[in-house]
Amino acid sequence: MALHDFFGTAPGNREAATVRLSKRPVEEPISANHFVLESPEQSVVGVPQLVFASDADTLSDLARAYGLGYDELIAANPDVDPWLPGENTPVLLPTQFVLPDVPKEGIVLNIASKRLFYFPTVPEGQAAIVKTYPIGIGRVGWETPLGMTTVTAKAKDPHWYVPWSVQQEQAEMGNPLPSVIPPGPENPLGHRVLKLEMPGYLIHGTNQPFGVGMRVSHGCVRLYPENIEYLYELVEIGESVAIINEPFLFGQLDGEWYLESHTPLEDDVLNPEQRLEQLLETHQGQAGAAIEQDEVDHARTIASIANGVPSRLGYHDADEVFARARHVRNTVEVDPDAPTLSEVREMIDEAVREADEEAESL
Questions:
Q1: pLDDT tens digits, residue range 95-105?
Q2: CA geometry: angle at 223 spanning 47 and 203, to 5°?
Q3: Contact 149, 106 (CB under 8 A)
Q4: Does one domain contain both 151 and 258?
Q5: Are 21 and 325 in contact (CB under 8 A)?
């Protein structure tokens, strides 16, 4: 579905809205990963942003520059060519997030939104904060497990002791691996690792950052190198980790309710309609009043679109998200050591193809 379909406008109107945004002053981007919670009731952070692509940008470039994962940016911009958006193409940055409805403590991993939330302990009397990062998760057949766990160890420049199941898989694909891969550019764990109490599962960096925000791992959780290096210094051994799967998220900001929707994972055992109905019931209890039918219908529309952009439940205006979006400076920088466009495209296409083949085999 095209972006103008989501906003309920014809292409001409969407173009007019984009022109209005382009006339606004160009602002600096918001902090990609750090947010202050102004009150205990606040459960929505950030604000949507809009950037105009240069002729050389890809959505993968823009995702990393603005603290997003690849799939997040694809979902928010389904009508934009991910490889050649084109000069001055508007790209919506989904840099507003509904916090998961779980205790705000430790690490929370929502595999449905492919995002990590970290709630560090702050001194009494200070406002709570949350740090959030895009994550890569386990692909079909190698699912990231759900449940509560803790961080049991930390390591810099780790060795990767390749699980036997992974060795078998790679051998069958004609790419045999040694039993141990030392630190270095060939190590898929990157330079930092947080070991979980769940045997065999890690939160780690990566030597293939293009896969952050996708279902490409063997079950572990991967972050951009710059994100895991920062998080590594903050997280202590014994920190709690909650791994959840919530594609639909209700949140509140300044007295208004928002709904954020993601496409449920293809191997999700729960029916999406049942998930939404349960969430609506919970939302009604939190709101303390019956939900109007038009809000229910609007919630179902938002859920079906699943573009990952929080939408205000009480607003049906076609330009609602555009009206709140900041026009921000394009911060993409060319990395001379980065893979070429064709190399990145080949790697991402291969990861997507493998995921599709595994999904079809279920």
A1: 999 999 999 99
A2: 125
A3: no
A4: no
A5: yes
Pairing verdict, β 215-217 and 90-93: unpaired
Domain range for 296 = 250-324
Q: From the candidates 4, 204, 262, 327, which is the catalytic residue?
A: 204
* Site of tokens 């950030």: 46
In degrees, to the nearest 5, what angle opens at C-alpha 273 toward C-alphas 272 and 279?
90
Tell me the C-alpha distance between 70 and 61, whole Å: 9
Residue pair 322/23 in contact by the 8 Å Cβ criterion = no
**Who wins on pLDDT, 141 or 156?**
156
Structure tokens at 141: 């057949």
Active site residue 327: no
Rounded Cα–Cα distance for residues 98 and 48 (Å) = 12
Kindly state whether residues 189 and 259 are assigned to the same domain.
no
State which amino acid sits at residue 273.
E
Distance CA 158, CA 176 (A): 20
**Which neighbouring-strand residues pair with 203?**
194, 221
Instruction: Tell me the helix, strand and coil percentages in the chain, rounded to 5.
Output: 30, 25, 45
Calculate Rg over the CA atoms of the chain: 20
AA identity, residue 286: Q
Point out the catalytic residue in the list 4, 220, 262, 327: 220
- Residue 291: how many other CB atoms lie within 10 Å: 16
Beta-sheet strands, E only, within 227-294: 240-244, 248-253, 256-261
Amino acid at 233: E
Instruction: Select from 192, 224, 245 the last residue of a domain.
Output: 245
Is residue 77 included in any domain, yes or no? yes
Mark whether 204 is an active-site residue: yes
Question: Phi/psi at 300 (nearest 5 deg)?
Answer: -65, -35
pTM for the full predicted model: 0.85
**pLDDT tier at 12 (50, 70, 90 boundaries)?**
very low
Helix or strand (DSSP H, E) at 327: strand 326-327
**Number of helices (H) and strands (E), helices first, in the chain?**
10, 21
Question: What does the pLDDT look like over 27-39, one tens digit per residue?
Answer: 999 998 999 999 8
